């Protein structure tokens, strides 16, 4: 197992479709580790996003119940949204927390930055926990979605992930990472 793995190299790239800032589809020619070239390796780039698990001062978790068009149904979610041009992920996440819930946090912890598709790219997401959240103002997301805030005990969130009420993998992953950090 001492064999050194080689990184792939993009030889050329052609934009197939682009709708800024939301999506970019490219066709690449890629030289793989053994020197062969794959002429039709497609990449999908979606806007980078942030997501946070907000823990209230008393220890409960605040979730949002809303319709999400990806799964095509109402789902429990955490505050999340796109990172705007030039915005740092933590600033974007704190902004989304205030916009969607009206909460501010005493502290935030970065859980990591991940790509959601190992070969085609997809989205780059930054995951956070915002702890000791308290009401700052009324929510004003400006989003198209109708949102209902739901305060839940940790065990209730666990159950919601496993019984399918959390329908989006990014949100299930955020919860899993938060649990590993002691929530």
What topology emerges from the helices and strands here?
Blueprint: E1 9-19, E2 23-31, E3 37-46, E4 49-56, E5 61-68, E6 73-77, E7 80-82, H1 89-101, E8 103-117, E9 121-135, E10 147-152, H2 154-162, H3 169-180
Parallel strand pairs: 3-9, 4-9
Antiparallel strand pairs: 1-2, 2-3, 4-7, 5-6, 5-10, 8-9
Structural account:
There is one protein chain. With 183 residues, this protein is of the alpha+beta class. It folds into two domains: 9-46, no CATH class; 49-180, Nucleoside Triphosphate Pyrophosphohydrolase (Alpha-Beta Complex). Helices cover 19% and strands 49% of the residues. The protein is built from three helices and ten strands; from the N terminus they run E-E-E-E-E-E-E-H-E-E-E-H-H. The chain has helices at 89-101, 154-162, 169-180; strands spanning 9-19, 23-31, 37-46, 49-56, 61-68, 73-77, 80-82, 103-117, 121-135, 147-152. Strands 1, 2, 3, 4, 7, 8 and 9 form a seven-stranded mixed beta sheet that branches. It is elongated. The model has no long low-confidence stretch (mean pLDDT 94).
Features:
seven-stranded mixed β-sheet; elongated; alpha+beta; three-stranded antiparallel β-sheet; 183 residues
The biggest sheet amounts to:
7 strands, mixed
- On the 0 to 100 scale, the average pLDDT is 94
Under the CATH scheme, the architecture of the largest domain is Alpha-Beta Complex
If you compute it from the alpha carbons, what radius of gyration comes out, rounded to the nearest whole angstrom?
A: 19 Å
Q: What is the beta-strand fraction?
A: over 45%
Distance between the termini: 37 Å
Shape: elongated
The class by helix and strand makeup works out as alpha+beta
Number of strands: 10
Number of domains: 2
Unreliable parts = none
Tally of alpha and pi helices = 3
CATH topology tier name of the largest domain: Nucleoside Triphosphate Pyrophosphohydrolase
């Amino acid at each position: 197992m001492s064999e050194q793995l080689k990184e792939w190299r993009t030889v050329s790239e052609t934009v197939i479709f682009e709708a800024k800032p939301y999506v970019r589809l490219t066709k690449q020619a890629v030289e793989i580790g053994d020197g062969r070239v794959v002429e039709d390796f497609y990449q999908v780039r979606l806007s980078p996003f942030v997501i946070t698990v907000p823990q209230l001062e008393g220890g409960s978790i605040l979730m949002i119940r809303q319709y999400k068009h990806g799964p095509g149904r109402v789902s429990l979610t955490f505050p999340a949204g796109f990172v705007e041009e030039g915005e740092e992920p933590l600033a974007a996440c704190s902004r989304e927390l205030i916009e969607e819930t009206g909460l501010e946090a005493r502290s935030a912890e970065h859980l990591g930055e991940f790509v959601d598709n190992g070969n085609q790219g997809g989205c780059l997401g930054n995951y956070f926990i915002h702890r000791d959240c308290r009401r700052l103002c009324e929510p004003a997301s400006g989003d198209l979605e109708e949102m209902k805030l739901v305060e839940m005990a940790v065990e209730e969130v666990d159950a919601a992930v496993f019984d399918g009420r959390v329908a989006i993998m990014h949100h299930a992953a955020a919860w899993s990472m938060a649990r590993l950090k002691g929530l």
